[in-house]
Write a structure and sequence with these properties.
This protein is an all-alpha fold. It is 70% helix and 2% strand.
């Protein structure tokens, strides 16, 4: 945009504003499964061949080798600083800034493609794309993806999707054969790479059709747009198959019989209504919005479904009859396409909806906002001024809400779960996660209260029993702790943490053979260096100096440099080499 002969550096302004707002995220810490994914992940920290082979396997319901490779790059670059969360959060923030710049390029190019060739070329398109980009980049629903280290996958996948879609627009609108070749190269590299970070591209055919509808207005008709969108099934279908496989083999997919098809359909409307609300009025934020048993068929859920269907039908009819409505229909269809895999028809996890799922789904809405702002003023200039003023006020309000929500994340994991319990009092997972954190700081009574509240909501889960074992152990009830851990393993035989904890307890009770069996099995299933140190102590006490030494050396190699586990492993190793008695847990 030129003002007084001067070009406004929109990209620089977007980068600086985005970086400034998200800088407080660097003060956050480890959250939820961050420690298990990074600090207690033996193959991530192990030798390169072991890491590379493991990175190609699914973990925690995801197949995401590119994300694992980025975290391994953190280890190579950071060395002893790897155990500090700030440096990983810096990577997320920088990645989000880069994504904002890529989104700006995508929105600007799409708006130019949607502008009639005979329209006067002004800086309005660039300014519109810049303001819409800020609405996307500063939205509070980005907080989970940026402030949660494990969600590095969101940042990587979204960056690559934005680049890939920009390549597709070059293919469709490039002024020269060379531009179209560049577009194909970008689309056919970035979009498949995004699938290695997160499986969002399974929605690509629907998103491509939505872009045809919203940006190009289906110039060659519906059939041509459908053919072009369907071609992307060659990428989407294999990714969908891999994503389903990853869900199944890691046990992340929910029990298919847990909800009826009627309940799932109603849940789709309920989740969609919440996504609309979170987009426009992002309040009631929490890292987990769980499915609450017995509430799926409530009147409010059915009303949300009927409202969603009516709105979709009305918008579809308007777009069919009037081309002016096609951008709005394309934005809605595009958002729905990106959300479709997580709306609940095929349930993964315990969440009814999640704010981070809007990260890509908000891109079509940002594009629609760009097109609205980029319209020439016309005779009624007041309407144009009002659009710009309202959007500017919206961006400022979103930025303020994001700043406040980031403050909650910075205050620590326990404060964040306390906020979640306040927003979602029926969330047993939130109560159990807060109990685990309270146990870590020695607040045993408070942790026991959380576990009792969770058990009152629904039968105790494997995690609940595992934490109950820790509570009973802290209170000196070793027999009760062993019983609770046995219940945890009965519900989830593959729970490595519960098996390792039981092995440590059995070792303390002098039941060496049973302890060795549990620890051996836990380590064979992927137990981390902290679990291996329990076996160091057990072997040293049994007189197996060589086995203890080998375990201590391996634990030291697997532990993050500079971490407490690494220091304890080094201390045990020194004691073993001096042939002195190593200290137990």
């Amino acid at each position: 945009m030129s003002q007084g002969g001067r070009r406004v550096p929109w990209a620089l302004l977007i980068g600086l504003i985005t970086a400034a707002l998200w800088a407080p995220a660097l003060g956050g810490g480890w959250f939820w499964d961050d420690r298990g994914n990074l600090l207690e992940n033996p193959w991530l920290l192990g030798p390169w061949p072991e890491f590379f082979a493991a990175s190609l396997r699914p973990h925690l319901g995801h197949w995401q080798p590119l994300t694992w490779w980025s975290l391994r790059a953190d280890l190579a670059v950071l060395g002893p600083w790897f155990s500090a969360p700030t440096v990983h959060l810096a990577g997320n923030v920088l990645g989000h800034v880069a994504t904002a710049l890529a989104v700006f390029g995508l929105l600007r190019q799409a708006a130019r493609a949607a502008t009639p060739t005979d329209a006067p070329r002004t800086g309005r398109v660039e300014a519109a794309a810049a303001l819409a980009t800020l609405a996307w980049a500063l939205h509070p629903c980005r907080v989970e993806s940026v402030a949660w280290i494990t969600e590095r996958r969101d940042v990587l996948a979204t960056l690559l999707i934005a680049l890939g879609l920009r390549g597709w627009l070059l293919v469709r609108t490039g002024a020269s054969a060379q531009a179209r070749r560049v577009g194909w190269a970008l689309a056919l590299s970035a979009l498949p790479l995004s699938a290695l970070a997160k499986a969002w591209v399974i929605s690509l055919p629907g998103a491509i059709f939505a872009l045809e509808l919203g940006v190009l207005g289906l110039p060659e008709g519906w059939r041509g747009a459908l053919r072009r969108a369907a071609a992307w099934l060659l990428l989407a279908l294999p990714v969908a198959a891999v994503a389903l496989w990853a869900q199944q083999v890691t046990g992340a997919a929910a029990d298919a019989s847990a909800l009826s098809w009627l309940e799932r359909g109603v849940g789709v409307g309920w989740a969609t209504a919440h996504y609309v609300r979170l987009t426009l009025v992002p309040t009631g934020l929490a890292p987990l919005h769980p499915i609450v048993p017995g509430q799926t068929l409530a009147i409010s859920h059915v009303a949300a479904l009927l409202g969603t269907v009516a709105a979709a039908a009305g918008l579809g009819w308007a777009a069919w009859r009037r081309p002016a409505w096609r951008p709005a229909a394309g934005a809605a269809l595009g958002a729905l396409a990106w959300l479709a895999p997580v709306l609940g028809l095929a349930q993964s996890g315990v969440q009814a909806y999640a704010e981070r799922y809007l990260t890509v789904a908000h891109l079509p809405l940002a594009l629609w906002l760009t097109l609205i702002l980029a319209r020439p003023p016309g005779p009624n200039r007041g309407a144009s001024v009002l659009r710009w003023a309202a959007t500017t006020a919206l961006v400022a309000a979103l930025a303020w809400q994001t700043h406040a929500w980031l403050g909650v994340w910075r205050s620590g994991a326990e404060a964040l779960w306390t906020r979640t319990v306040a927003e979602e009092p029926a969330s047993t997972h939130a109560l159990e996660n807060r109990a685990a954190l309270r146990l870590q700081r020695g607040a045993v009574a408070a942790a026991a209260q959380d576990l009792a509240a969770a058990a009152a909501l629904q039968p105790r889960s494997a995690t609940g029993w595992k934490l109950e074992g820790e509570v009973r152990r802290a209170r000196g009830d070793r027999a009760g702790a062993l019983q609770a851990l046995g219940e945890a393993l009965r519900k989830a035989p593959g729970d490595v943490g519960a098996r390792c904890n039981r092995g440590a307890l059995l070792a303390e009770a002098g039941r060496a053979a049973e302890a060795a069996a549990d620890l051996d099995r836990a380590l064979a299933a992927g137990g981390g260096p902290a679990c291996r140190l329990n076996r160091v102590v057990l072997r040293a006490r049994a007189g197996d100096a060589q086995g203890a030494l080998a375990d201590a050396e391996r634990a030291l190699r697997q532990a993050p440099p500079g971490s407490s586990v690494s220091k304890r492993a080094a201390g045990l190793l020194r004691a073993l080499r001096r042939r002195g008695p190593p200290r137990g847990r």
